[in-house]
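JOB MANIFEST
job_type = single_chain_structure
chain_count = 1
residues = 165
[input]
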Amino acid sequence: MSGEQGIGVLFVCMGNICRSPTAEGVFRRLLAESPLAGRVRVDSAGTHAYHVGEPPDPRAQAAAAARGIDLAGLRARVVTVADFDRFDHVLAMDRDNLRALERICPPGREDRLRLLMSFAPETGVEEVPDPYYGGSRGFQHVLDLVEAACRGLLAHLERAHAAPC
């Protein structure tokens, strides 16, 4: 998948209105200043169709905006089997969503699946918690975790796709 079409990264949570659009926005911002700018396609999706077509949760938007990240133009969608062909990295926010992705993953594409937090082992956190039923502090915590993991993901991709000397 990488090559001419670029590198594809898909962030996935349950409803695609809190964690995965936050990760998409954070990663887009980091990519803008990376040698990989213009070479990576980024999207987000949910494993459930609860919020299809809706913008990110207002609390997620407010937390992201406070850090200079605009999520307003994003809209929720559901992950599809075709996404496993379109994206090289399908990154789940937690184990429940990873299992949901594993159930629809076509044979031979399992290597694309991973937990996002695996790119930030220094945090000691394996899953991004769902802040939906909590307060604004939960959205800040999600941003902290997602920023650490997205920095690790970007470093991984920069190493893996560095231009030859």
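[summary]
The radius of gyration is 15 Å.
Helices lie at 19-32, 58-65, 83-86, 95-104, 136-160.
exit_status = 0
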